[in-house]
Amino acid sequence: MPEMIRIVEMIDSSSLVDVGDAQKIFRVISKNLRNKNHVTMSFAGVDQIITAFANAAIGQLYSKFSEETIRELITFVDMDDITHETISSSVARAKETAKRKRGEAK
Questions:
Q1: How many CB atoms lie within 10 A of CB 31?
Q2: In terms of residue numbers, what domain contains 65?
Q3: Using the 8-state DSSP alphabet, how is residue 2 labeled?
């Protein structure tokens, strides 16, 4: 059974603006990915998210884990359009950065 990460509960805030809080999320996700555990991330109750939070919580995963591992083991749920757009943008940039570091992108 996947671990459910309820972000609002974990950081005790509906505003995802603190990079320190994002690091907490990153550490929990990373531990699960290292152990090959599935994770479901719930964004229920999120009122605000900034790009720096998305980069720190999710984007930096691409520097530690393969895109395949992330896609296979993480499920995102309960996202409104703004949260989805912010996360998607962060992930796209993180993927490109990871490819450049591996020498796969121009």
A1: 12
A2: 3-102
A3: P
What are phi and psi for residue 105, nearest 5 degrees?
-110, 160
- CA-CA distance, 29 to 39, in Å (whole number)? 7
Mean pLDDT by 10 residues, the chain (106 residues): 92 97 97 97 97 96 94 97 96 91 69
Q: Which residue has the tokens 């805030």?
A: 13
Round to whole Å and give the CA distance between 58 and 79: 14
- In three-state secondary structure terms, 42 is strand
10, 44 contact by CB (below 8 A): no
**What's the total number of domains in the chain?**
1
Predicted local confidence at residue 106, as pLDDT: 52
Kindly report whether the global pTM for this prediction surpasses the value 0.85. yes
